[in-house]
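Data availability (excerpt). The following record was deposited with the supplementary files.
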Amino acid sequence: AHDLDRPPERPLRRHAFDRPDHDRRGRQAVQAQRALDLASTTDAADARARALDRVEMASRALGQTTNGVFAREALALYEDLHDLEAVSRVTNNLGAETFFAGDWVAARRYYAESADMARRIGDVVGAATTDCNQAEVLVFCGRAEEAIELLEPAIRVFRSVRSEGDVAFASVLLGRSLSMLGELPRAISVLSDAVASPASQAERAQLVDGSIALAEAWLRAGDVSLARSTIDNVRDSARSEIPSLYPALATVQAETLAAAEDVTGALEACASGRASAVEQGLPYNEAVLTVLEHEIAGHRGLSALAPDDSMQFLARLGVTDLDRVLVTPRRLSFSE
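Predicted structure:
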């Protein structure tokens, strides 16, 4: 079958490191243009819906924002056609669109609607995938209990279909959630297994992401040496191969250096990570690093960027507890 004749996929969204694939830009651009041409010339609702669907996904791969315009039109057509599988899948993809647009409340709502629809039609893998997408957003917000409720059943589904890459990714999210809740022995066990899994070893981004989470768990457990060595093992890869993960790595690196009383190194890591976040258009990471720099500097009586705008931005995203997001002891809270 031709690419445009096949329905698009429901991807597991790995928001932390799913960024435009520059090696495929040419192919994606051609596919997007062909889909647009088809959408503008066909009167068949199903063909037009698939074409619009393709435009949305190709645009995402190209790093171009559409504000979900094509996806919403495709969704309306699929609803008219009573194609519930497509409705669920496109709603899932709208969750990703709104996530990257900075409306995380809407993203969680789309993901929840998509998962509910998937369950109604018996698509257990689709529901698990979308639940995992929603859980990642919840983890970013520090809402660990809600994330665990979604992740544990999803991991069971992924294991039942032997989707080892999805098991590893969801396990990293589970480990992060457990770490936030202080369940450190289990968190370290889950994260160590995920990092050591063949799926993580085969995918560099997955390995780096898992290692960042494991380093954070070691830091919460008070083992600064293991946290530092875990970060050191993947720091160069994050910076050169998966730059979208570098600000997250710099966050844990800064906290590790601060715990080791290296305030100068910690502040340098904050500045480096924040500059990377600004360059890549990662406002969540930029805000987290701005707050962290203020905290580390403040504990030593030093000055840093005022974090008011960053605090307000994080609150709009749905972050309500900085002690879940960062390890460094807080002087600030959202209630102040």
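Summary of structural features: The CA atoms of residues 191 and 214 lie 6 Å apart.
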